[in-house]
Give the backbone structure.
Amino acid sequence: MTVFRSLLACLILVIGAVSIHAQPEAPATAPLLRQIAVADTLDAAQQLAFTPGAGFLVLPASLSGKIDAAELQKRLANAENRPVDEQLLVAIAQVIEAFLRNQGLPTATVIVPEQRIVDGLLRVAALPDNSTVLLKRIALADTVEGAQRLFPAADAGFLSLPASLAFINRQELQKRLAAAENRIVDDRLLASIAQVIESFLRQNDFPLASVQIADRRLADGTLRLAVLLGKFREIRIRGNRWFSESLLRNKLDIQSGEVIRVSDLERAINWTNASPFRKVRAHIDPIPNTNEANLIIGVDEKLPLRVSASVDNGGNTAIGETRGIVGLTYGNMWGLDHDLTYQLVTTDEYPVYRGHGLSYRVPLPWQHTVHASFSYSRARPEFFDGLFVQDGENLNADLRYSAVLRRGNNPVEGFFGLSFKQSNNNLEFGGNEVQSSKADTFLVSAGVSGVRRDRHGGWILALTLNGSPGNLNSRNTDAVYGDVRIGANPAYVYGNLTVQRVLALGKGWEFNTRGVLQKSSTNLLSNEQLSIGGAATVRGFTENTFIGDEGFVSSTEVATPYFKRKLPFVSAARPPLDYRWLAFFDLAHVKRKHVLPIDRSFDPLSSVGVGLRASLPPHLQLTADYGYQLARVPFAEGRGRLHVKLLFSY
């Protein structure tokens, strides 16, 4: 075998020389090889100088008596007067090492230290005995060939990583390998180091990672390892019917030959699962005796059509106390995974109020989202037994671009939006005013939201800024806004801050507190104000009891674990009723930005109460809360209120 290695190395040297003949002449700055000086230690090799008249090969006394120097010089002769490049250096090292091992030095190792070729001298360290080498450093590369060419600098530290492996946590991995530093290198140590690195990578995003020893020449104390991260060979999709295979492949955006990384795969799966009409799962199927795996994608989907209907008592006396909403969603428009939703909103006073909403959602290939929505409502309430009929109209159009700024366990999302609103009334907000002319609102919005999880639960934060330049058309002027509300201005800025804390108390109990703060630069129209009172803010009060330009809303809840109960009128094959109880305390206060002499101040609203959250999977959901008023307000009917909402979806 050593004879074969020696012959192979000579062949590499000859091929290298021939390739140099075939290439254009080297630049004048490339030095020519005139002498090879060999020492039996790395330190001694670095001190060697050119020896005139000593011939092409200069050997130390410790080697000249043990090997056939003339034969070695003959094998190296083709390298003389050749331009020095990396290929030539590797070939020379292999020729000398193979020759020494064939000459009775089976553990000999040859190292070409880092050097600048001066006077055509190449310094080489030939260590006869490699059995007591101490480990000085570990150098990693992402290919075997790359690892073999590694010569890390002396100040590179114990663990050296190339730019292609910069994602590895060097500090943490070096800490795990620290015990190997300055240990005598043997097969057991090499196997342990490879196992530690491999386990570290598999625990940190690379489930098929493997480590290979690229070069056992350790005379300089450097262990060169190749880190092979594992790649996908085939991507197979099974179980899809309503969503095409090409669509799912584009959503996943995972290609054959791509490095297997758990975080990338999870991100692809989460993005693909953004549609409520499907659930995909991934299985990595390793291919034996390779560093590859097939990716099996199982798809659990349903017809991308959803019909929903809900009823609640969240209306008001002007448009009707009981609201009804019917919705229809199709989740794969044009076969492109786009969502289209239509909603009809009305009340128990059907001739008085009707609203229509249309929204369209487009998931983009780079995992951002564009959402467009449009709504129109009209209210024609009667007052004094039909003596007066008001005619109010509201129109809204929104365009929003959303992007995930940070993924993982603590995601952050941002958005930018444009909005247009047109209205001549405040009927939907509990008022009874209808103006003779309409006012237009043009808004630019930007916001960011994030989740921060910890071992007790999590924080949710959201910040939104809204601005209107004003005076963009004839219905967006100071005069029009002043007619709608004294002190209102079409150029303004306001912002909302939401902070929520969720705590897991153990055994299914939860503590949830939420606060919302709004600040404004001026008096706002009713469609931009903060309203308090009702199921979403302060329970126990009528919807939109007060509305103001600035203020805060807070809610604190303690919820029980979920309970399950079989209902007697439901088939035994159906899921049981899921329900939980909660207790709450709500508090809110709003005010006007600029108070006029005729304006009265708003009292804070506060309430306590109990609630129920129940569902009968997969179609029915019930929300019920009873709030008791801790603070009385003028013209309040009773001291409490029940808020109920029933939702059916199919």
